[in-house]
Design brief:
The chain has about 525 residues and is mainly α. It is about 65% helix and about 5% strand. It contains 20 helices and four strands. The protein is globular.
Length: about 525
Amino acid sequence: MGVAARETLEDYTLRFAPRSYRKWSTGVVAVSALGGIAYLADFAIGANIGISYGTFNALWGILVFAVVIAATGLPLAYYAARYNLDLDLITRGSGFGYYGSVVTNVIFATFTFIFFALEGSIMAQGLNLGLKLPLWLGYAVSTLLIFPLVVYGMSLLSKLQLWTTPLWLVLMVLPFAYLLISHPESVGQFFAYQGQSGAGAPSLGSVMLAAGVCLSLIAQIAEQIDYLRFMPPKTPENSRRWWAATLLAGPGWVIFGAIKQVIGLFLAVYIIANAGGAAIANQPVHQFLEIYRDIMPAGLAISLAVVLVVISQIKINVTNAYSGSLAWTNSFTRVTKHYPGRLVFLGVNLLIALVLMEANMFDFLNTILGFYANCGMAWVVVVASDIVFNKYVLKLSPKKPEFRRGMIYSVNPVGFGSMLIAAGVSIVAFFGGLGEGIRPFSPLVAIVLALVLPPVIAIATRGKYYLRRTDDGIDLPMYDEHGNPSAEVLDCHVCSQEFERPDVVACLAHTAHVCSLCLSTDKTGEHLLPLVSEK
């Protein structure tokens, strides 16, 4: 078996995650998933929206962000943990089709390199502060450091997240607790802050603009799912632990994200009010450094601030790089029927992120995130809407997810069309094309359209574009007695490897079985066309 095939079999880049590989407990999966949200971008985002719109509007914007993320993340996280699929495979069967989800993969890959660049920029600031490393060189170091850590996939990432989480928690919580205890007046300053321009009076438009920046993080659920797909089977014995881990590591990530945004704003207001550092108040490394200096000697303060930044950036950027490489690989392989190896796209993702860093993306952060939020929301909300309304309420979409080529249509207008319309209209609104009065509400435009259009289009098309076939030609059940994907093993006659039941379909042309991986790279259609009879 070649290198690319071995790599695919290890990381399940294009596939369902089989039970034989999923040896981690619910707790280990949850901690690994939550370790990926150690990023410091939340502190920068919280500070930026507070400086722009004032504390009151920023806090309400963060609340809107948290509610939307939790509501849309729940159905997606459940499907990932229950059926052991990444968000691309879920998207395919939730209204997009086999090729329709290529666009959403690109949206997600964009998310990973934008936030890799943001986190790498923060790390470079830390290295500049502590080691006097020039920023351009710090950008390169923060990028190259990640590559070897991501090569080994989930096996190494789970250990890395477990080992680094305790120290990260102590270093992050310490300055906030210190301010609350030693400087109680900082709380009053925080709530009274009106923003840099002093125009932070309560405003619905400002709240929605703040929420729009925060909602750029909506695609974070896809990174959580890249861990959640490795959850063990749900059984009566582990049901409570399984649900707790799924909820906490799935939509629950937003609790920690929102808290970090509030803390980032709190630290920024303290620095602006007491240290006169408005120019650096939105940079996490300086936020923590200023507080550490109040607690300990300057040398130790700098060292700890740099340690916190480096740990945080490694924890999140291994996830950004890993998830981005999966997304690019999925898209490329589906379109070209050629699998060059995940490491190729790991390099591509890191290179794009490095270019963004060298372009100093911090200078136009709010614009980048606000624009991206419209695309991310359109995708995630459409998938959540299809699961909730079309699968469970209207029953026009098959409840059990289907992702295999040949079993689903190439493009399904329900999700694909809904996403294009929701993203397109909201982007026009974002740039003022629908009038300045609507501009702040572009996130709301994306959410409403993405929520309403999938059931409308599903009803109009009577759900006919979800499944090309309802029978994959194999008599064995797809699920066990508890509703988990079956662990029954079958041989693929093309690659001569063993695959579990959900990853295989019948190939009538050869009276044998073929795996979803070989189907995805089948250029001639030899194994695809005679899969099973049309029904």
